[in-house]
Amino acid sequence: MVHLNRESESEPRIYGFTSTASVVLTHLICIVFSVFIALLSRPGTSLFSWHPFFMTLAFSFFMTEAILLFSPHGSPIKRFPHKTKGRVHWILQCLCLSCAVLGLAAIAYNKHLNGKPHFTSWHGLLGLLTVCVVGLQSLAAVPLIYHSLAKGWSLAKLKRYHAASGLVTYLLGSISLLLGLCSAWFTASVREHTWYLSALCPALSALIIMNQVTSAYMAKKRLQS
Fold it and tell me: Are 23 and 208 in contact (CB under 8 A)?
């Protein structure tokens, strides 16, 4: 009986340790990956260089950090009230949208100057869709900050919808990044093993973020039932 109690106590400890380790790893991944792309693209050396820089900053750094704010295991503002986390989350998402729009404008204008067609690849089409979805997601979050705008809607239900659509948006951003790594520019700039390590960054981050969001709402359902 004592042995069973010790096992049951050790399980939450192991879960807490692995959850914290995964969140810390995600923080490191989004920072290292963003810095790596910045060094590789050297923003300012050409018009195109701003595209990978801003897009990586948007979807790998700002969007990831915006979601990790709500992690109970590795949030940099863990002790702050939920309302404060919500406002900081929205600010980071607006920064994400701003960077994404700048990155989209850079590549669109670069293609215009070089007489190339727009949005002819899966990367381009999915990237455009993701930027539009991020904009809609940021607008849809306003009633969560100003509750008076959410007339006739349950706040709990709005939060569930926002979390679900936010996860889909994050996955779209991660896939866009992965498709960007398949571009001629990136494959010509790195070696094969570097490509695989780079591709692992958005893939791992997406898995950890997906686990965080789904675990949070599964825990809420267990408490409500």
Answer: yes
